[in-house]
Every structure is written in C-alpha cells, then in structure tokens.
What we know:
This protein is of the alpha/beta class. The chain has three domains: 28-94, no CATH class; 104-148 and 157-445, no CATH class; 449-485, no CATH class. The protein has helices spanning 7-37, 59-64, 66-78, 82-96, 131-136, 175-191, 207-210, 222-230, 242-247, 264-278, 299-304, 307-310, 386-389, 408-415, 426-429, 432-443, 447-468, and strands at residues 43-44, 49-50, 104-106, 159-163, 166-169, 197-203, 237-240, 289-296, 314-320, 325-330, 338-341, 361-366, 373-378, 395-400, 419-425, 474-478, 481-485. The radius of gyration is 25 Å and the shape is globular.
Amino acid sequence: MARPRPAHVVNVAALALVLAALGGRFLIELRLSIGTTQRTLEVSELENRTLAPMPVFTSSNLSSGAYTRGLDAYVADHFPLREPLLELASMVKDARGFHVDDVVYDTPDSDVGGLEQTDTWAGVDAGPQTAEELDAGVGTALLDAGPAPEKKKKKYKSGVSIVNDRALMFLVGDDESARAFAEVVNLYAQKLDPAVRIFSVVTPTATAFYLPPDQQERSAPEDENLAAMKVTYDPAVHVVDVHQALKGHADEDIFFRTDHHWTVLGAYYAYAAFCAAAGLVPVDLHNLEKKSKSPTLGSLYRMTQNKVLKNHPDVVDYYLPSVPYTAVRYRDADLKTAAKANFIVEGEKGYVVFLGGDDPMMVAKTEIKNGRKVLLVKNSFGNAFAPFLLHHFEEVVVVDYRYYAGSLATLVKTHGITDVILQNATVTANSRPHVRRLREALLGSGAAWEAETLEKQQARDRKYQEEHGIRSPTTTLDAGTPTTSEAR
C-alpha cells in the first residue's frame, strides 16, 4: 500500500497552484491596466478615496517638514502599477482563507482609525505639541474646555467590527474631547460678526445605530458624546440634532456598509434638520432627479479587506440639484487657480460623485436672490450634504478645513457670508488633528495658536503688574503678528 504524502507536501503543492493562478490573473490585469497607469490618478477606484496630491513647494513647508512628508505621501500613492498590486494583495489575503464573520479588526490608534494622512493637510503639523497641549490631551482647544467630569474615564481602542455584512468603526472619544470640539465651534461664534449665524451639524456614525449590544462596550457611546458637546456650546450656536434626525430612519440606507460615510439619504435627513433650525423649507426629494452609481467598495473594506464586505458592495445614490448654478473649485491651498466645477460629478465613481472629492475651496453662485450666503466648513462627511444647500442661498462656499490655508474669518467678510455651518462627524470631531485644524483655519494656519499664546502672556503680564505694582514687558498684537516691546 502506498504511503500517504506528508501534509506539508500537500499544503506546499496547493499553495503553489493558488499562487500560479493568482499570478496569471495578475499578469492579465497588469496588461489591461498599463494604459490607465500612464497618467497620474487623482482617485483610487479600489480604495474609493482621493490620492495624495503633489505638495506645493514653499520655504515654510520645507523648513517645517510638511513638504517632505507630503512628498512621501504622494510617492506612496502614485508608484507605478499601484492599483493592480493592491488588488493582488487583496486576492492573496482572500486565498489564505483566514476571514471570519463578525470579527473585530484593530486599527491604528491615530486620527480616525488611520483613515486619514494628516501630514498631507494644508499647513498642519500635528506634533510635537507644547507641554500645555500634551497636558490637555487632545489639542489647544482643550485649554479653555473647563474641568473634566469626576467620573473615571473608560479607555476605548480603535477598531472596526464586521457585523453581518456591515463594517462599524469604534469611537474612541470621551466627554473631554467632545467639549474640545464644542469650544472650537464657540470660538467661531466669538470671533465672527454677531450677525453671522453659526450652526453645528455633527452626525453620529453607523455604529450608533447598528452596533450589537454585546459589542457596545468596545465603542464610546455616541449619543452621550454628542450630549457633552451640546451642553458646552455657546448659546449663540444653533445646534442641529442630527442623531435624533437619523434615529427614526435607522431601518433605511442612511449609512454605507463598506464605507465610513453616510449615504445621500442620511445627509438629506441631516440637511432637513438644518433647514428646521435655519427657518428654511427643505427641498422634497421627490422633486429631484435621482441617479445611482454602480456598486463600489468603500474605505472600511480597504481597511479590513474583509471578504464578506467584498461580496456586498454599496450602491451610491445621488440627486441632481434642481436650481441653476455655476461653480469653481480651487485645488491648491493658495487658491490662485480656479477651475469650473460641479457639486455633483457624474463621471466619478463611488462617494467621489459628491463634489468630485475634497478640495480646499469651492464656490457656487445660484440664481436665488435672497441676500443669504452660506459657508460650509466640512471634511468629507459634508460632501453629500453640500449640494442640497444650493436650493436656499445666493452663494454657497464650501471649505475643507483640512486643506484650506487661509483665514475663514477673512473669507466670511470678503464673501459677505450670512450663515456658517460647521459640519462634522463624531469620529472626526473627537480627533485632535481635526480639532486643531478647525481652530487654525478660523484665523489662518498657525495664527490661532499664536493669538491664544499672546492672550495668555498678556494675562500673565497684567497679573504680574497687579501683584508687584510695576510695569512689566508686554506683548502686543499688530495685524495678527505678535511683536514684543518694552512698556514705557
């Protein structure tokens, strides 16, 4: 009787066959992809995200290290044959057969679970921080956030859970980080003209509605997090309760299953809640033309490469605005070059159909004549929200605070803005780089921290004078630039 082959020999042979099949498929896909890789891709279809742009070379970017970090990100996103290589890696993982349903994937303990590369943001240097900032925990906005609650903090760890055919991100924020975000929103209300109305529109994520009871200890409660923001907002801030607006529609497709964003339907319900707070009548979806993009896989599939998600791609619905408008986009942080744009870009795939991705600024002008102009300060969650605003304002200015290097306070004056919407999500509102960047964008990159440092130094000087009855060196602010002079 023939002796059976050792198990390891069988395994090696099977592995060789699998690798040969994968290699053959890869070569076919490689040949087909050569034509598309001869040009620089701006959006990864496989990852459903905007790729890192070539950084702008300036002396300040070079000295701060932002240029070299941006260059690293650009090279990592644009090396030859990147897309087919990523797909091959996914095929190999699937062939190993290690995927399990309802599994939890650990993600980096960094901004938004590692979804975003903050080094590519305009004028941002997330670290190292000052000693005061490190003591505060999540950034400069915490310095005025008030005392922390006495209850013991529970530590949460970043991760993604696959529940049935849906990916859910864990929230790692707490009351302290929630208050830090609210304090930045308050700063907008304090620094801008009182006649300008400030709206806070923060959405929970899908986790708030679909995380099973046996996993809820893994994620910070999003309703409590939003409540901590609400009690911290200045009375001048109009708070839109997005959680409540979405809660009654949880049985509808308000969030994607393979992506961390909400769908256009979820964005619509938030927009309707905003209209109620702003005294507007929301446009009826039945009066808009609805279209759909072919099934696509989103950011959470990219992060997990989960086979269940791969077999359940998302259909991206969108609605065409019913009002005539013209728009331009600015792709560079210096805002020197404008290009024609649309708020719905039908030639794009996936979530990128909304606004065509993330740019520092877009400006749309409509035929509406009511004297109202809105500024939407957003990250990518605001992309599906923005097109609905065209139905209510003469001018719609959309700024992505992550890439905008100017001063929003100046922009509000220049454009005659009457309404400012700070649109965010719990998963980003509790992120230190997002909070810091929102603060910097108000007065211009870096100016916010300089102004706050100046105010603190002046307060120390006044206290010193009062205690000792003498005149001390003081610091004065001239056109936003701190200078030191001796008091005479």
